[in-house]
Write a sequence for this structure.
C-alpha cells in the first residue's frame, strides 16, 4: 500500500491542496484535491503586507485542510506547504508564517521563482514523458503565468538555455492598473511593453523567432484548450494559434460575471482571466509556432514528483544535466573561456570523487562544485582584476535553472574563494552563514582551487591526470611532457586551503 503524499500551495489567488499516492508501478493516483480563494496577492501587491482579514482567512482554510488530511491519516508535519511570490514579497511574512505554524501546525516554506521553475519542469516532464508529440530536441519555450509572476524556461535542442521569473503576474497587473480606470487596450499595451522590454535578454539565450515548440502551463490555458483546443491524450492538449488568438479576443468582450457564468470558474479567477490570456498570447506571438501544447499539470504535481522520485537515477541525472546546461549557457552569455571551464570541471569532479570519504559531502554538493567550476571565471567579463569577486556577483544575481537561492549563495561563494589571498574564514559574509553551509563552501573551495591551479596556463595540458592519496600527500600524476613549473607554483599558492581543510599536501609530478 503506497503512502499518500500531501502538498498545499499558498498562491496569490488561493490555497490549493493535493493528495496523491505513487504506486509500486510508479504511477501517481490523485486521491483528493481542494481549492479555496484567498486575496493574498491583492493585499501584497497593493500595500506590501498581508492584511489581518487575509491572515485570518488563510488560517481558517488551513485548519479546514488539516481536518481534511486527518481523514487520510496525514499530519501537518507530514504535509509539504509552500508559498510563492506574494508571500515572498510580503513585509510581514515572518509573523504571518509564525501565526500559521502556531494555530495550524503547518510549517510553510517560501519558494523562489527558480524553484518554481524546477518543479514545473518536473511536472511537465512527467506529463510528456511518453508522448511522441513533443520532440525533445526542438527549441522550446515553457511558460506559466500566475498571479504574481510569469515563469519562463527556454530550451535549445533539448538543453536548458535560460530561466526567468518575471514580475509580470495577473493580480499584480490588475492592482497596478485598477486605480487609473484603464481599458483593455491600456492593459494590453502595459503587458506588451513589459514583455518587449524583456525580449532582448531572452533573445540572448534563445532567439524567440527560432522557437519551434511552445508549451503553455496553467489553469487558464487548460480552460482555453477545453474550449478551442483538441485533446491529444488524457493530460495533453493542442491549440491552433489562430484559434487561440480569436478566443483571447472573444474573452476580452466578456465581463467578469459573464466569465464566471460561461466558464464555471471562481470570481477571483475570472477577474484575472483576461490579463492571463493576454500574457500568453503576446509571448506566443513573439514566436513563429503554429500550435500550442498545453500539459494539464501544475506546481503541486511537481512537488509530489520531487518528493517521490528520489530513487529514480535516470531522472536525477537528466535533471542535473539541465542544471549544468543552464550554467554553461550563462558562461557563454558572458563570453567565458569554455575550454578552461571544462578542464577545471573535469579535474574538480575527479578530485571530489577521490576525496569523497574525507569530505562527507553528498551528490548535491558535487553538483554545486560542478556548477562553480563551470562559472568560476565568469567575472572576467567585467574585469580581469578581482574577477573572482565579479564572478560572485554575477552568479549570485543570475537565474540558474534548478538552483535555489541558497544553492546560488554556495556556488557564488566557491567562485569567490577560488583564488586570491582572501580566506573564507576572514570574510564577514561567510561567518554569517550556518555552519553546515560554511563547511560545504570551505571544502568545495579547497577542491576548486587545486583543480584551477592544474590549468593555470588555460592550455588544458593537464586535462587528463591521475590522482591518489598516500599517507598525508595527494599525488597528482600527469603523462604530459610539458614543464610543470607554472602549475606547481599555482599549487603552492592555492594548495594551502586544501591542506588546511583536509590535511593533505598536494604534489604534481
Amino acid at each position: 500500500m503506497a503512502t499518500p503524499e500531501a502538498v498545499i500551495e499558498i498562491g496569490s489567488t488561493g490555497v490549493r491542496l493535493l493528495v496523491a499516492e505513487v504506486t509500486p508501478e510508479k504511477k501517481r493516483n490523485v486521491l483528493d484535491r481542494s481549492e479555496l480563494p484567498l486575496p493574498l496577492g491583492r493585499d501584497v501587491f497593493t500595500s506590501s503586507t498581508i492584511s489581518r482579514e487575509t491572515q485570518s482567512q488563510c488560517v481558517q482554510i488551513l485548519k479546514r485542510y488539516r481536518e481534511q488530511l486527518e481523514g487520510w491519516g496525514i499530519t501537518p508535519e507530514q504535509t509539504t506547504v509552500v508559498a510563492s511570490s506574494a508571500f515572498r514579497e510580503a513585509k510581514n511574512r515572518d509573523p504571518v508564517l509564525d501565526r500559521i505554524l502556531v494555530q495550524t501546525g503547518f510549517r510553510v516554506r517560501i519558494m523562489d521563482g527558480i524553484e518554481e521553475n524546477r518543479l514545473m519542469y518536473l511536472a511537465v516532464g512527467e506529463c510528456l514523458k511518453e508522448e511522441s508529440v513533443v520532440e525533445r530536441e526542438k527549441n522550446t519555450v515553457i511558460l506559466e503565468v500566475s498571479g504574481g509572476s510569469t515563469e519562463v524556461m527556454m530550451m535549445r535542442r533539448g538543453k536548458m538555455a535560460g530561466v526567468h521569473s518575471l514580475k509580470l503576474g495577473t493580480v499584480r497587473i490588475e492592482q497596478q492598473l485598477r486605480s487609473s480606470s484603464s481599458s483593455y487596450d491600456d492593459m494590453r499595451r502595459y503587458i506588451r511593453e513589459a514583455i518587449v522590454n524583456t525580449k532582448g535578454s531572452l533573445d540572448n539565450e534563445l532567439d524567440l523567432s527560432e522557437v519551434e515548440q511552445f508549451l503553455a502551463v496553467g489553469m487558464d490555458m487548460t480552460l482555453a484548450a477545453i474550449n478551442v483546443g483538441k485533446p491529444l491524450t488524457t493530460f495533453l492538449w493542442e491549440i491552433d494559434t489562430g484559434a487561440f488568438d480569436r478566443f483571447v479576443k472573444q474573452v476580452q468582450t466578456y465581463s467578469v460575471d459573464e466569465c464566471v457564468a460561461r466558464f464555471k470558474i471562481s470570481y477571483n479567477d475570472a477577474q484575472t482571466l483576461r490579463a492571463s490570456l493576454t500574457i500568453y498570447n503576446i509571448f506566443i506571438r513573439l514566436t513563429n509556432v503554429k500550435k500550442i501544447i498545453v500539459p494539464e499539470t501544475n506546481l503541486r504535481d511537481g512537488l509530489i514528483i520531487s518528493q517521490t522520485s528520489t530513487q529514480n537515477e535516470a531522472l536525477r541525472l537528466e535533471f542535473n544535466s539541465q542544471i549544468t546546461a543552464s550554467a554553461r549557457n550563462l558562461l557563454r552569455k558572458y563570453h567565458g573561456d569554455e575550454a578552461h571551464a571544462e578542464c577545471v570541471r573535469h579535474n574538480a569532479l575527479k578530485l571530489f570523487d577521490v576525496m569523497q570519504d574525507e569530505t562527507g559531502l553528498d551528490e548535491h554538493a558535487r553538483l554545486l562544485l560542478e556548477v562553480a567550476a563551470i562559472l568560476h571565471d565568469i567575472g572576467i567579463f567585467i574585469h580581469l582584476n578581482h574577477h573572482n569577486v565579479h564572478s560572485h556577483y554575477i552568479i549570485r544575481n543570475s537565474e540558474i535553472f534548478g538552483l535555489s537561492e541558497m544553492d546560488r549563495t554556495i556556488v557564488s561563494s566557491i567562485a569567490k574563494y577560488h583564488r586570491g589571498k582572501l580566506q573564507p574564514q576572514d570574510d564577514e559574509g561567510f561567518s554569517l552563514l550556518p555552519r553546515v553551509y560554511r563547511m560545504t563552501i570551505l571544502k568545495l573551495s579547497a577542491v576548486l582551487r587545486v583543480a584551477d591551479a592544474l590549468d593555470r596556463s588555460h592550455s588544458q595540458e593537464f586535462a587528463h591526470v591521475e590522482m591518489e592519496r598516500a599517507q598525508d600527500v595527494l599525488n597528482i600524476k600527469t603523462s604530459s611532457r610539458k614543464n610543470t613549473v607554472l602549475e606547481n607554483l599555482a599549487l603552492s599558492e592555492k594548495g594551502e586551503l586544501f591542506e588546511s581543510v583536509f590535511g593533505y599536501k598536494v604534489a604534481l609530478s
